[in-house]
Amino acid sequence: MRSATSEADIFKDDTQEDTQKGRFLSLSLSEEVFALEIKYVTEIVGVQPITPIPEVPDYVKGIINLRGKIIPVIDMRLKFKKPSTEYTDRTCIIVVDIEQVSVGLIVDNVVEVVSIPDKDIVPPPDYRTGIQNRYIKGIGMVETKVILLLDCKKILSKDDIEDVLEIQKVRGDLL
To answer: Which of 60, 73, 75, 162 is the most exposed place for a label (fewest CB within 10 A)?
Structure first.
């Protein structure tokens, strides 16, 4: 028989899952609007000093120290092969947890939190159309706007995740 505490915890987890279903954080990169499932987002912070790391892909800008936690940051413009641009006061870092790894995603700006019911989401075009969509999980419609829904689990490759874990391990060894 379960204790009242464990039942409450299970109920809380189900409720939290339900309240996040269909909710996305929309963001812009250049003129395009993308969205991440809100369940992956842990916080949004302004751009802060980034410590570069040698021998990483160009889209990995380096690491930040966020309240004592070392977070690698990825410039999503560079990840998506868009031209680089100067960071502005609207540029921010979206901290997400992917596969139990915290990563900061640098975006031009955060637009809003939107609710998109499953009926308003269609799969992306397949690869035969010539559209590269390896990071796109679906296409959402919000009123008359089309929003590309990012697949958080595909934003980072296995090599990226291994690099992040190595960075965090080195940081742990230094403490």
So the answer is: 162
Domain count, the chain: 1
Prediction pTM value? 0.79
Q: Alpha-carbon distance 128 to 93, whole Å? A: 33
- How many other CB atoms sit within 10 Å of the CB of residue 40? 20
Neighbours of 65 (CB within 10 A): 13
Strand order in the sheet with 69-75: 41-46, 92-98, 101-107, 69-75, 60-66
Domain that holds residue 37: 22-174
In a domain, 138, yes or no: yes
What is the Cα–Cα distance from 82 to 85, expressed in whole angstroms? 9
Two tokens, residue 70:
């070392």
> What residue type is 166 in one-letter code?
E
CATH number for the domain including 87? 2.40.50.180
Residues 142-151: tens digit of each pLDDT: 888 889 999 9
Q: Cβ distance 53 to 167 under 8 Å? A: yes
Quote the percentage of the chain above a pLDDT of 90: 47
- Tokens 């990563």 belong to 103
Distance CA 124, CA 149 (A): 9
